[in-house]
Design brief:
alpha+beta, Cytidine Deaminase, domain 2, six-stranded mixed beta sheet, 27% helix
Length: 161
């Protein structure tokens, strides 16, 4: 048997005031968009902003449905919308904010992690993930690999097409 260790790297900001100007603006835009979340059942509003390599920013919010699990997370709403409208552009950053907060941010669910990871693998470049929950600290990851180190990879399957 061999014991192995995984190290995760990320940056932590005390507040948005300490972030780069573009990141600051994106977090604020995502927070302003929280009002568009449809979360009557969980009461847990989430907003996401996807920034593409052409500078375009696409917003999304979580959308719940009484026929659970027919709803969709904010991250997937934003990234699916971005890639539907701009299929040839790379995703550079995904900002995820919640209305409710902890001392540390909430992180995306497993399904959202896998979806973002697949786009990162397909575009062969990292996607930064920025998380903020209410008045929490802000966490910035340089790649989805830091949040999903053992992602499901179907590269061989994709190459067969």
């Amino acid at each position: 048997m061999t014991n192995k260790k995984i190290e995760i790297n990320y940056s932590e900001y005390e507040s948005v005031k300490h972030m780069e100007e573009n990141d600051f603006q994106c977090v604020n835009s995502a927070e302003d968009n929280l009002k568009n979340a449809y979360a009557p059942y969980s009461k847990f509003k989430v907003s996401s902003l996807v920034q593409l390599d052409n500078g375009i920013k696409v917003l999304g919010t979580n959308q719940e449905n009484m026929a659970y699990p027919s709803g969709l997370c904010a991250e997937r709403v934003a990234i699916f919308s971005a890639k539907s409208q701009y299929p040839d552009n790379k995703v550079e950053q995904v900002f995820i904010v919640t209305e409710q907060g902890n001392e540390t941010p909430f992180s995306p669910c497993g399904a959202c992690r896998q979806v973002i990871m697949e786009y990162e693998m397909n575009q062969k470049s990292p996607i930064q993930i920025i998380l903020k929950s209410g008045n929490s600290k802000i966490w910035k990851f340089n790649s989805m690999k830091d949040l999903l180190p053992f992602a499901f990879e179907a590269e061989e399957i994709l190459k067969k097409d």
